[in-house]
Design goal:
With 240 residues, the chain is mainly α. The protein has ten helices and no strands. The protein has a single domain, classed as Orthogonal Bundle (Fic-like fold). The longest helix is centred in the first third of the chain and has 22 residues.
């Protein structure tokens, strides 16, 4: 299952150091597309082009302040995650809460970076998140399991996303935070960040719900592997 992406990664690594301008343009496109798709999955109505101009500092008429902040915050969260990876910082609760704090900055400062103190449901899903009293011990367990998992890095990143969303530790911003943490893990392992496209929202939600209710992670792992393959092929097509 992982042979293709590992072979593509080896091809990309063999080309390092990569052309500076190519890498910069690829990175700018990745940040824009990751921000657009991650927010669109959660209901943000900014188009790709509107997201681009918002990230350039221009407001878009007819769009809410929240939607503007969701785009700006997400880019800042990506930059912070990349800086954490560059410093080789380990996966921790501090990292999780810091990412979430950036995601909800200026949107819900009261709950930003704080585990929920109330019970929630996930609209449209069969899975019901655990009661809020169990969130802290479950998050501690999540980190312990992450650190002791002996599986392929891409599978580990996918499982981290699934398990995090299953706990649903925050009142809002769980999906965006989960995708940022998944890509933190991929970047830390030398892989490229993956983008779950908004057009695949239904398949994405169904794969997550299947993993939560039936403990069957395969559909979501496959989705992440395919997204990683797509990202690697795109990089190779440019840097070559």
């Amino acid at each position: 299952m992982f042979e293709t992406i590992d072979a593509l990664k080896a091809q990309l690594d063999a080309l390092r150091p990569l052309p500076k301008n190519s890498v910069q343009s690829l990175h700018e496109a990745m940040v824009l597309e990751w921000t657009y798709h991650s927010n669109a999955i959660e209901g943000n109505t900014l188009t790709l082009k509107e997201t681009k101009v918002v990230l350039e500092g221009i407001t878009v008429g007819g769009k809410s302040i929240r939607e503007h902040f969701e785009a700006i915050n997400h880019r800042e969260a990506i930059e912070w995650v990349e800086s954490v990876v560059a410093r080789n910082e380990p996966f921790s609760e501090r990292l999780i809460k810091s990412v979430h704090q950036l995601v909800l900055k200026n949107i819900d400062d009261t709950n930003a970076g704080c585990y929920r103190h109330e019970n929630v449901i996930i609209a449209g899903a069969q899975h019901i998140p655990p009661e809020h009293l169990h969130v802290q011990p479950l998050m501690t367990e999540l980190i312990d399991c992450y650190q002791n998992q002996a599986c392929h890095p891409v599978e580990r990143a996918a499982r981290l996303h699934v398990d995090f969303v299953g706990i649903h530790p925050f009142v809002d911003g769980n999906g965006r935070t989960a995708r940022l943490l998944m890509n933190f893990d991929l970047l830390s392992s030398g892989y490229l960040p993956v983008i779950i496209e908004a057009e695949n929202r239904l398949v994405y939600y169904e794969a997550l719900d299947k993993a939560h209710t039936g403990k069957c992670y395969q559909d979501y792992i496959t989705m992440v592997v395919e997204a990683e393959e797509q990202a690697l092929k795109r990089y190779l097509s440019i840097v070559r």
